[in-house]
Amino acid sequence: MFKLRLLLTALALSSSLSAMALEPLPTTAPAPADNPTTPEKVELGKLLYHDPRLSSSGTVACASCHNTSLGGEDNRPNSVGINGQTGGRSAPTVWNAAFNAVQFWDGRAASLEEQAAGPVTNPIEMGMKSWDDVVARLKTIKGYQVAFAKAFGDDNAITKANATKAIAAYERTLITPNSAYDKFVAGNKAALTVQQQHGLEKIQALGCTGCHSGPAFNGPGGFQKFPVFSNGYFEAQYHISKDLGRAEVTKNDNDKHLWKVPTLRNVAITAPYFHNGSVKTLDAAVKLMAKLQLNQDLSDADTADIVAFLNALTGEFPHQTLPSLPATPGSTFN
Amino acid sequence: MFKLRLLLTALALSSSLSAMALEPLPTTAPAPADNPTTPEKVELGKLLYHDPRLSSSGTVACASCHNTSLGGEDNRPNSVGINGQTGGRSAPTVWNAAFNAVQFWDGRAASLEEQAAGPVTNPIEMGMKSWDDVVARLKTIKGYQVAFAKAFGDDNAITKANATKAIAAYERTLITPNSAYDKFVAGNKAALTVQQQHGLEKIQALGCTGCHSGPAFNGPGGFQKFPVFSNGYFEAQYHISKDLGRAEVTKNDNDKHLWKVPTLRNVAITAPYFHNGSVKTLDAAVKLMAKLQLNQDLSDADTADIVAFLNALTGEFPHQTLPSLPATPGSTFN
């Protein structure tokens, strides 16, 4: 009898959900016209992405903070760059970043190519004085001369533009398909538990999917305000409003507290949460979002259902070989 | 005629070399009786080795300084631990470390297991307060509970002893066979160029292989004095004698300036050189060793031959999959 009720609930849920646009994560990411994805670029980009020699000290790679082995980020509220320096924002996951309409929390890069250029010369991240210095260093490494020539078909191919194109091409392969949710959407209704199906229904009913929409649950693009509903207590507890978000870039008051909508894909394994990593657990993050964005006080039971569903967004991480970085001639670092 | 002379030279060299004990690198490493190598331990050890959550800040893994992608070390004179701190010694390569008779530059660990325990709680390296803290943290990560149980067949298997055993088991798989030298030793006389064969002959004639002996060119075990011949100029230039080596551990004057003989395997790709990483190029390192250990002033031509040979000791790095680290529940780091 109990089983039957469960089944009926499941059927009712599937039926109500089937009317909505539930989309699986695409297994390939679109590339810009001037940077079609090729295996050679992906292979080169993978090397560059994991190479700490792209930092002034030789200790910080893209992968140090956006760790492909660890949910695509570093599990820290903020990241640690050269000389132990920390910034004010939490590293977003690189997995499925190809599906973001803009990059960085404040959306200051329009593409993965543009994003890749930033941290390398940021003085508290990778600390290179200029991309000319990066290019000069890469040119001393024979293996990179070969890999750039292969990827870009030119003996003089080591340039900033090509390096960032290669990194972006690699990042476009960092996709985590086949989550329980994707299997459910593809027709396997048993892929989500009844609790997860409840959670899915609730994030739609509450309005979470108003912004966290689409296959990557990161909206159709553009920015959203956070918080929508002021709350002195929570804003103080989590220092949420200290950072002006997009307005820090545009210096436009209308952009205050606007943020890129982050993907919910793999959210269960990418704590801590929010632009400043101030919230340590997914339960707390879900409750806070409901309160600050939708003015809802979520019950523990509703929170548990939603968290159960969010766990169904953890995808399959494709097998990659550990990169074998081309050798340095002598030593670059002091 | 020129070709004939080259051929005759090559034949003469092979003939003179064939009388000596040239040994290929073993493709497996011996394991201690209480830690037989198993696939489950190797897999777990690979995770732990690449996991920055074994450091207090979540930013430094074993692989940060002993980078499996980058010749097994970090190409720096000294390594960078938590909070940007640096030590006084250069990270030795992890590749083929299984063939060292002792571990650390000063040989203070008798085994890979013992070595693995050190950096994790070193305050300037990975900075954990104690292994109890490491164990407590690992126990919060469900994937580690599973992986330790698989490797050690016990539900309560997360211990310091098992963690270091697993790391050591993984490190025993980090072997780089099939260098040009190994192919030469196996009978393919064309695997070494004539210049490389000259280099091989010279390191034997000069006496380099007195200490750098055996298949890994790291001696039969024990320690050697460095420098053997005092030289105020070079000792000052490279700060070579400031660090007392083994005596820093034993506090015994007889151990002053005794060091573990490092492997020459992959030496061409693991600059900078010596315990303090003070020498940036292989040419300079070869000349300095000849001067300080053998009281020989090497000509540029002899140096070039030896460097050519040392390049033949770069092996094949086996393909490994990029580790997929088990997810953190919530966030551990502040």
TrEMBL record, chains A, B:
Domain Cytochrome c residues, every copy: 40-314
Binding site for heme c 2: C208, C211, H212, M289
Keyword Metal-binding carried by entry: yes
Gene3D superfamilies named in the record: Cytochrome c-like domain (1.10.760.10)
Keyword entries, A-Z: Electron transport, Heme, Iron, Metal-binding, Oxidoreductase, Periplasm, Peroxidase, Signal, Transport
Pfam families hit by this protein: CCP_MauG (PF03150)
GO CC annotation terms, alphabetical: periplasmic space
Cofactor: heme
Major location (coarse): periplasm
Residues that hold heme c 1 according to the record: C62, C65, H66
GO MF annotation: an example: electron transfer activity
Residues in the signal sequence: 1-21
Pathway where it operates: One-carbon metabolism; methylamine degradation
Subcellular location: Periplasm
Record PTM text: Binds 2 heme groups per subunit.
Cofactor: how bound: Binds 2 heme groups.
PANTHER family: CYTOCHROME C PEROXIDASE-RELATED
Function in brief: Involved in methylamine metabolism. Essential for the maturation of the beta subunit of MADH, presumably via a step in the biosynthesis of tryptophan tryptophylquinone (TTQ), the cofactor of MADH.
Protein name listed in UniProt: Methylamine utilization protein MauG
Originating organism: Methylomonas paludis
